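Feature request, filed as a ticket because there's no other form

It would be nice if the structure record came with a short human-readable summary line next to the tokens. Right now we just get the raw output. Example of a typical job, pasted below so the devs can see what we mean:
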Amino acid sequence: MPGTQPADIDQLRQRISRLEGERRVAGVLPFGLNLIDSRLPGGGLALGALHEIAGSGKGAVDGAAAGLFAAGIAARSDGLVMWCARPGDLFAPGLAQGGLPPGRVIHVEADDDKGVLAACEEALRHGGLGAVVGEVARLSMIASRRLQLAAEGARTLGLMVRRWDTEKAAVQFGLPTAAMTRWRVTSIPSAPLPVPGIGRARWRLELLRCKGGQTAEFDVEACDGQGHLAVSAPLVHRPVAAADERHRAAS
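Raw output as currently delivered:
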């Protein structure tokens, strides 16, 4: 820029470095699975940041999976969790399946998306919470930017779960937001059991966007009672099985 002195540029660089350092101080929340954490900057979900989660399509099953995924993340944070949704959209006892018991949840209801966003922004700015979760159909760039700045300022984890009420709202999930990461959750068949019964729920997690990281796809077992994901035994042993197969082919 005309008239800009080298000293001014140095000061600007130092200021940017300090701001970036302050963001890093907030730390990360690891999933505890190297499969996922290795794809995320810092080895986990950035705290003091906004993250966006949605189910695949408009199905109720995938929508519930997205909510449980968010509950599992929030469960592993420290402190109380504020969860804001429209009336009737949240079955609070179900959050316990993802490791988030009722005693840790501050349940807030708002009449529409605008009210949910306002409540979440206020909660993020207030600080002192382990996580703030909101359920909305639409999330504009302006609204997401306000939430991201509020999360950064208070160093609080922000999670926005997208709920589709119309086909148009589902299509809008492809529009850009200021969220640090964007996830899509799809229910997939459970691993077969050696005896009759239903196995642990399984999800396909798609990391569609990650600032400073990589996009990826993971097949995992759903959150347990402590909010932890797992990799099923066949997936864990797949590299070993592949190595055995190569050995047999060579011999």
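Something like this underneath would help us a lot:
The chain has one domain: 26-189+198-250.
The mean pLDDT is 84.
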